[in-house]
Protein: N-acetylmuramoyl-L-alanine amidase
Organism: Stackebrandtia endophytica
Amino acid sequence: MPEAHISRRRALLLAAGGLAAVPLLGVGQALADTSTSAKPRVYIDPGHGGTDPGAVGNGLQEKNLTLAIALGVRDHLNANWDVDIRMSRTTDLTRSLSYRSSDANSWGADIFVSVHINAGGGTGFESFRYTSASAGSVALQNAMHPQILAGMRTSGSITDRGRKTGNLHVLRETRMPAILTENLFIDRAADAALLKSSAFLAATARGHAQGIAQYLGLGGGTPSPTWPTLRNGSSGENVRTLQYLLLQHNQNLVVDGSFGPATESAVRTVQSSRNLTVDGVVGPKTWTSIVVTRRQGDNGDAVRGIQRSLSSKHGIATTVDGSFGPGTDTSVRTFQSRKKLTVDGVVGPISWQALLG
Protein backbone atom coordinates (compact mmCIF):
# COMPACT_ATOMS: atom_id res chain seq x y z
CA MET A 1 0.00 0.00 0.00
CA PRO A 2 1.36 3.50 -0.84
CA GLU A 3 2.43 5.55 2.18
CA ALA A 4 -0.28 8.14 1.48
CA HIS A 5 -2.93 5.43 1.57
CA ILE A 6 -1.60 4.09 4.85
CA SER A 7 -1.74 7.56 6.38
CA ARG A 8 -5.32 8.05 5.17
CA ARG A 9 -6.39 4.73 6.64
CA ARG A 10 -4.75 5.41 9.99
CA ALA A 11 -6.34 8.84 9.97
CA LEU A 12 -9.73 7.20 9.52
CA LEU A 13 -9.08 4.95 12.51
CA LEU A 14 -7.89 7.85 14.63
CA ALA A 15 -10.64 10.30 13.68
CA ALA A 16 -13.72 10.97 15.74
CA GLY A 17 -16.08 11.77 12.88
CA GLY A 18 -17.32 9.98 9.76
CA LEU A 19 -19.86 9.62 7.01
CA ALA A 20 -22.85 7.84 8.51
CA ALA A 21 -25.54 9.02 10.87
CA VAL A 22 -25.43 8.30 14.60
CA PRO A 23 -27.24 5.15 15.77
CA LEU A 24 -30.98 5.18 16.23
CA LEU A 25 -30.94 3.65 19.72
CA GLY A 26 -31.05 6.22 22.48
CA VAL A 27 -29.11 5.86 25.71
CA GLY A 28 -32.24 5.46 27.79
CA GLN A 29 -33.51 2.66 25.59
CA ALA A 30 -30.17 0.87 25.64
CA LEU A 31 -29.99 1.07 29.44
CA ALA A 32 -33.48 -0.38 29.71
CA ASP A 33 -32.47 -3.24 27.38
CA THR A 34 -29.37 -3.97 29.43
CA SER A 35 -31.35 -4.35 32.65
CA THR A 36 -33.51 -7.12 31.15
CA SER A 37 -30.72 -9.29 29.73
CA ALA A 38 -28.37 -11.48 31.73
CA LYS A 39 -26.50 -12.70 28.65
CA PRO A 40 -23.11 -11.19 27.80
CA ARG A 41 -23.36 -8.52 25.11
CA VAL A 42 -20.74 -8.82 22.38
CA TYR A 43 -20.33 -6.03 19.83
CA ILE A 44 -18.53 -7.07 16.63
CA ASP A 45 -17.29 -4.37 14.28
CA PRO A 46 -16.23 -5.36 10.73
CA GLY A 47 -13.86 -2.57 9.72
CA HIS A 48 -14.63 -0.24 6.79
CA GLY A 49 -17.52 -0.96 4.38
CA GLY A 50 -19.69 0.73 1.79
CA THR A 51 -17.87 3.65 0.19
CA ASP A 52 -14.75 2.90 2.26
CA PRO A 53 -13.03 -0.26 0.97
CA GLY A 54 -10.20 -0.03 3.48
CA ALA A 55 -6.90 -1.49 2.34
CA VAL A 56 -6.77 -2.99 -1.16
CA GLY A 57 -4.30 -5.44 -2.66
CA ASN A 58 -3.89 -8.68 -4.58
CA GLY A 59 -7.45 -8.52 -5.87
CA LEU A 60 -8.89 -8.19 -2.34
CA GLN A 61 -10.71 -5.44 -0.44
CA GLU A 62 -10.40 -5.16 3.31
CA LYS A 63 -14.10 -4.40 3.81
CA ASN A 64 -15.12 -7.77 2.34
CA LEU A 65 -12.62 -9.76 4.38
CA THR A 66 -13.50 -8.08 7.67
CA LEU A 67 -17.18 -8.75 7.07
CA ALA A 68 -16.55 -12.42 6.26
CA ILE A 69 -14.51 -12.90 9.44
CA ALA A 70 -16.97 -10.96 11.61
CA LEU A 71 -19.96 -12.95 10.35
CA GLY A 72 -18.00 -16.11 11.09
CA VAL A 73 -17.33 -14.89 14.64
CA ARG A 74 -21.04 -14.23 15.09
CA ASP A 75 -22.02 -17.64 13.75
CA HIS A 76 -19.47 -19.51 15.88
CA LEU A 77 -20.54 -17.67 19.03
CA ASN A 78 -24.23 -18.31 18.32
CA ALA A 79 -23.59 -22.00 17.65
CA ASN A 80 -21.66 -22.55 20.87
CA TRP A 81 -22.63 -20.07 23.57
CA ASP A 82 -25.62 -18.13 24.88
CA VAL A 83 -24.67 -14.52 24.10
CA ASP A 84 -26.31 -11.43 22.66
CA ILE A 85 -24.54 -10.13 19.56
CA ARG A 86 -24.77 -6.80 17.79
CA MET A 87 -22.75 -5.83 14.72
CA SER A 88 -21.92 -2.42 13.29
CA ARG A 89 -22.86 -3.86 9.90
CA THR A 90 -23.88 -7.22 8.47
CA THR A 91 -23.74 -6.12 4.82
CA ASP A 92 -21.66 -3.73 2.73
CA LEU A 93 -22.70 -0.51 4.50
CA THR A 94 -20.85 2.72 5.18
CA ARG A 95 -20.48 3.27 8.94
CA SER A 96 -18.60 6.18 10.48
CA LEU A 97 -16.21 5.62 13.36
CA SER A 98 -18.48 7.66 15.64
CA TYR A 99 -21.42 5.43 14.67
CA ARG A 100 -19.51 2.32 15.69
CA SER A 101 -18.39 3.58 19.10
CA SER A 102 -21.69 5.34 19.89
CA ASP A 103 -23.76 2.32 18.85
CA ALA A 104 -21.74 -0.01 21.08
CA ASN A 105 -21.97 2.43 24.00
CA SER A 106 -25.71 2.99 23.60
CA TRP A 107 -26.40 -0.73 23.36
CA GLY A 108 -24.50 -1.37 26.57
CA ALA A 109 -22.01 -3.84 25.11
CA ASP A 110 -19.85 -5.82 27.51
CA ILE A 111 -16.99 -6.05 25.01
CA PHE A 112 -16.11 -4.48 21.65
CA VAL A 113 -14.15 -6.32 18.95
CA SER A 114 -13.12 -4.51 15.76
CA VAL A 115 -11.83 -6.67 12.89
CA HIS A 116 -9.34 -5.31 10.34
CA ILE A 117 -6.81 -6.39 7.71
CA ASN A 118 -3.36 -4.80 7.69
CA ALA A 119 -1.30 -3.23 4.90
CA GLY A 120 2.09 -1.64 4.44
CA GLY A 121 4.41 -4.44 3.41
CA GLY A 122 4.61 -6.45 6.62
CA THR A 123 3.32 -9.90 7.44
CA GLY A 124 1.47 -11.63 10.25
CA PHE A 125 -1.07 -10.90 12.99
CA GLU A 126 -1.20 -8.18 15.62
CA SER A 127 -3.80 -6.83 18.02
CA PHE A 128 -4.36 -3.41 19.62
CA ARG A 129 -5.84 -2.04 22.82
CA TYR A 130 -6.05 1.64 23.76
CA THR A 131 -2.85 3.32 24.96
CA SER A 132 -4.22 3.77 28.49
CA ALA A 133 -6.55 0.80 28.40
CA SER A 134 -8.51 -0.52 31.35
CA ALA A 135 -7.60 -3.78 33.01
CA GLY A 136 -10.58 -5.28 31.18
CA SER A 137 -9.14 -4.34 27.78
CA VAL A 138 -5.77 -5.78 28.73
CA ALA A 139 -7.44 -9.02 29.82
CA LEU A 140 -9.53 -9.15 26.64
CA GLN A 141 -6.43 -8.72 24.46
CA ASN A 142 -4.56 -11.35 26.48
CA ALA A 143 -7.42 -13.81 26.03
CA MET A 144 -8.07 -13.20 22.34
CA HIS A 145 -4.60 -12.69 20.85
CA PRO A 146 -3.25 -16.23 21.41
CA GLN A 147 -6.54 -17.87 20.45
CA ILE A 148 -6.67 -16.00 17.12
CA LEU A 149 -3.04 -16.79 16.41
CA ALA A 150 -3.60 -20.48 17.21
CA GLY A 151 -6.58 -20.57 14.86
CA MET A 152 -4.61 -18.97 12.06
CA ARG A 153 -1.72 -21.38 12.53
CA THR A 154 -3.95 -24.34 11.68
CA SER A 155 -3.64 -23.07 8.09
CA GLY A 156 0.04 -22.17 7.97
CA SER A 157 3.01 -20.43 9.60
CA ILE A 158 1.93 -17.01 10.89
CA THR A 159 4.20 -14.31 12.32
CA ASP A 160 3.15 -12.99 15.72
CA ARG A 161 3.64 -9.20 15.53
CA GLY A 162 2.62 -8.82 19.16
CA ARG A 163 0.06 -7.26 21.46
CA LYS A 164 0.19 -3.54 20.88
CA THR A 165 -1.42 -0.28 22.01
CA GLY A 166 -2.76 2.55 19.86
CA ASN A 167 -4.75 5.77 20.09
CA LEU A 168 -7.46 4.48 17.76
CA HIS A 169 -10.96 5.99 17.79
CA VAL A 170 -12.95 2.81 18.35
CA LEU A 171 -10.67 1.85 21.25
CA ARG A 172 -10.55 5.33 22.75
CA GLU A 173 -14.26 6.21 22.52
CA THR A 174 -15.87 2.92 23.55
CA ARG A 175 -16.78 2.50 27.22
CA MET A 176 -16.15 -1.23 27.56
CA PRO A 177 -13.15 -3.55 27.15
CA ALA A 178 -12.16 -3.22 23.51
CA ILE A 179 -9.70 -4.77 21.07
CA LEU A 180 -8.85 -4.21 17.39
CA THR A 181 -7.35 -7.09 15.42
CA GLU A 182 -5.18 -6.77 12.30
CA ASN A 183 -5.43 -10.09 10.48
CA LEU A 184 -2.49 -10.41 8.07
CA PHE A 185 -1.38 -8.02 5.30
CA ILE A 186 -3.53 -7.64 2.22
CA ASP A 187 -0.62 -6.30 0.15
CA ARG A 188 1.72 -9.24 0.83
CA ALA A 189 1.21 -12.08 -1.65
CA ALA A 190 1.69 -14.92 0.86
CA ASP A 191 -0.72 -13.34 3.36
CA ALA A 192 -3.23 -12.57 0.61
CA ALA A 193 -3.18 -16.20 -0.50
CA LEU A 194 -4.32 -17.19 2.99
CA LEU A 195 -6.93 -14.42 3.06
CA LYS A 196 -8.41 -15.90 -0.13
CA SER A 197 -8.94 -19.24 1.66
CA SER A 198 -12.35 -19.86 3.22
CA ALA A 199 -10.67 -22.34 5.59
CA PHE A 200 -8.28 -19.65 6.85
CA LEU A 201 -11.08 -17.09 7.31
CA ALA A 202 -13.16 -19.67 9.20
CA ALA A 203 -10.20 -20.57 11.44
CA THR A 204 -9.55 -16.87 12.11
CA ALA A 205 -13.21 -16.32 13.01
CA ARG A 206 -13.18 -19.36 15.28
CA GLY A 207 -10.10 -18.03 17.07
CA HIS A 208 -11.84 -14.70 17.68
CA ALA A 209 -14.92 -16.47 19.06
CA GLN A 210 -12.91 -18.76 21.32
CA GLY A 211 -10.95 -15.81 22.69
CA ILE A 212 -14.17 -13.95 23.42
CA ALA A 213 -15.62 -17.00 25.18
CA GLN A 214 -12.45 -17.41 27.24
CA TYR A 215 -12.53 -13.77 28.35
CA LEU A 216 -16.22 -14.01 29.27
CA GLY A 217 -15.72 -17.29 31.14
CA LEU A 218 -18.24 -19.15 28.99
CA GLY A 219 -16.51 -22.52 29.10
CA GLY A 220 -16.02 -24.90 26.22
CA GLY A 221 -19.45 -24.38 24.67
CA THR A 222 -21.35 -26.83 22.52
CA PRO A 223 -18.92 -29.07 20.61
CA SER A 224 -18.60 -27.75 17.07
CA PRO A 225 -19.51 -30.07 14.21
CA THR A 226 -16.49 -31.63 12.56
CA TRP A 227 -15.76 -32.36 8.93
CA PRO A 228 -16.12 -36.08 8.18
CA THR A 229 -13.20 -37.94 6.63
CA LEU A 230 -14.13 -39.80 3.43
CA ARG A 231 -11.96 -42.06 1.28
CA ASN A 232 -12.19 -44.89 -1.24
CA GLY A 233 -14.62 -47.43 0.24
CA SER A 234 -16.80 -44.88 2.08
CA SER A 235 -20.50 -44.74 1.31
CA GLY A 236 -23.69 -42.92 2.33
CA GLU A 237 -25.27 -39.50 2.21
CA ASN A 238 -22.07 -37.59 2.93
CA VAL A 239 -20.49 -39.22 -0.12
CA ARG A 240 -23.48 -38.10 -2.19
CA THR A 241 -22.98 -34.55 -0.90
CA LEU A 242 -19.30 -34.77 -1.80
CA GLN A 243 -20.15 -35.97 -5.30
CA TYR A 244 -22.58 -33.10 -5.86
CA LEU A 245 -19.86 -30.66 -4.79
CA LEU A 246 -17.38 -32.30 -7.15
CA LEU A 247 -19.90 -31.90 -9.97
CA GLN A 248 -20.17 -28.23 -8.99
CA HIS A 249 -16.42 -28.03 -9.59
CA ASN A 250 -16.74 -29.47 -13.10
CA GLN A 251 -15.79 -33.06 -12.29
CA ASN A 252 -17.54 -35.81 -14.26
CA LEU A 253 -18.95 -38.59 -12.09
CA VAL A 254 -22.16 -40.33 -11.07
CA VAL A 255 -23.86 -39.38 -7.80
CA ASP A 256 -24.45 -42.79 -6.24
CA GLY A 257 -23.24 -42.45 -2.65
CA SER A 258 -20.34 -44.83 -3.26
CA PHE A 259 -16.74 -43.56 -2.99
CA GLY A 260 -15.07 -45.59 -5.72
CA PRO A 261 -12.21 -45.03 -8.17
CA ALA A 262 -14.08 -42.34 -10.16
CA THR A 263 -14.80 -40.29 -7.04
CA GLU A 264 -11.22 -40.71 -5.82
CA SER A 265 -9.90 -39.55 -9.19
CA ALA A 266 -12.14 -36.47 -9.07
CA VAL A 267 -11.00 -35.70 -5.52
CA ARG A 268 -7.35 -35.96 -6.53
CA THR A 269 -7.93 -33.62 -9.48
CA VAL A 270 -9.54 -31.01 -7.25
CA GLN A 271 -6.81 -31.36 -4.60
CA SER A 272 -4.12 -30.84 -7.22
CA SER A 273 -5.83 -27.75 -8.61
CA ARG A 274 -5.93 -26.20 -5.11
CA ASN A 275 -2.35 -27.08 -4.13
CA LEU A 276 -3.53 -29.51 -1.45
CA THR A 277 -1.94 -32.83 -0.56
CA VAL A 278 -3.05 -35.15 -3.38
CA ASP A 279 -4.05 -38.30 -1.50
CA GLY A 280 -7.69 -38.81 -2.53
CA VAL A 281 -8.80 -38.49 1.10
CA VAL A 282 -11.41 -35.83 1.87
CA GLY A 283 -10.63 -34.19 5.21
CA PRO A 284 -11.08 -30.65 6.61
CA LYS A 285 -8.79 -28.88 4.11
CA THR A 286 -10.39 -30.54 1.10
CA TRP A 287 -13.92 -29.90 2.38
CA THR A 288 -13.26 -26.21 3.03
CA SER A 289 -11.77 -25.83 -0.44
CA ILE A 290 -14.84 -27.26 -2.22
CA VAL A 291 -17.84 -26.06 -0.22
CA VAL A 292 -19.46 -23.00 -1.77
CA THR A 293 -21.81 -20.53 -0.13
CA ARG A 294 -25.36 -20.83 -1.46
CA ARG A 295 -28.51 -18.82 -0.80
CA GLN A 296 -31.94 -18.18 -2.29
CA GLY A 297 -31.67 -17.51 -6.02
CA ASP A 298 -28.71 -19.84 -6.60
CA ASN A 299 -28.84 -22.93 -8.80
CA GLY A 300 -26.68 -25.94 -9.57
CA ASP A 301 -25.20 -29.13 -8.20
CA ALA A 302 -24.12 -27.66 -4.85
CA VAL A 303 -27.77 -26.72 -4.27
CA ARG A 304 -28.77 -30.30 -5.12
CA GLY A 305 -26.29 -31.49 -2.51
CA ILE A 306 -27.86 -29.23 0.10
CA GLN A 307 -31.37 -30.32 -0.82
CA ARG A 308 -30.50 -34.03 -0.80
CA SER A 309 -28.79 -33.79 2.60
CA LEU A 310 -31.70 -31.86 4.12
CA SER A 311 -34.23 -34.37 2.84
CA SER A 312 -32.50 -37.74 3.07
CA LYS A 313 -30.10 -37.25 5.99
CA HIS A 314 -31.86 -34.70 8.18
CA GLY A 315 -35.50 -35.55 7.49
CA ILE A 316 -36.56 -32.08 6.30
CA ALA A 317 -38.74 -32.58 3.23
CA THR A 318 -37.07 -30.68 0.40
CA THR A 319 -37.42 -31.02 -3.37
CA VAL A 320 -34.11 -31.93 -4.98
CA ASP A 321 -34.17 -29.86 -8.18
CA GLY A 322 -31.02 -27.72 -7.97
CA SER A 323 -33.00 -24.51 -7.56
CA PHE A 324 -32.61 -22.61 -4.26
CA GLY A 325 -36.10 -21.17 -4.02
CA PRO A 326 -38.41 -20.25 -1.12
CA GLY A 327 -38.99 -23.91 -0.22
CA THR A 328 -35.28 -24.64 0.12
CA ASP A 329 -34.81 -21.40 2.03
CA THR A 330 -37.46 -22.50 4.52
CA SER A 331 -35.83 -25.93 4.88
CA VAL A 332 -32.39 -24.40 5.45
CA ARG A 333 -33.77 -22.07 8.10
CA THR A 334 -35.51 -24.98 9.83
CA PHE A 335 -32.24 -26.91 9.84
CA GLN A 336 -30.25 -23.93 11.14
CA SER A 337 -32.76 -23.42 13.94
CA ARG A 338 -32.53 -27.08 14.97
CA LYS A 339 -28.74 -26.91 15.04
CA LYS A 340 -28.74 -23.58 16.92
CA LEU A 341 -26.97 -21.80 14.08
CA THR A 342 -27.63 -18.27 12.86
CA VAL A 343 -30.97 -18.55 11.05
CA ASP A 344 -30.38 -16.60 7.84
CA GLY A 345 -31.07 -19.15 5.08
CA VAL A 346 -27.48 -18.91 3.84
CA VAL A 347 -25.46 -22.12 3.59
CA GLY A 348 -21.88 -21.14 4.32
CA PRO A 349 -19.01 -23.19 5.81
CA ILE A 350 -20.62 -23.59 9.26
CA SER A 351 -23.96 -24.76 7.83
CA TRP A 352 -22.17 -27.11 5.42
CA GLN A 353 -20.22 -28.55 8.34
CA ALA A 354 -23.43 -29.11 10.28
CA LEU A 355 -25.09 -30.77 7.24
CA LEU A 356 -22.17 -33.18 7.02
CA GLY A 357 -21.79 -33.70 10.79
Remarks:
- The first strand starts at residue 41 and ends at 46.
- The two ends are 42 Å apart (CA to CA).
- Confidence is low (pLDDT under 50) at residues 1-12, 16-37.
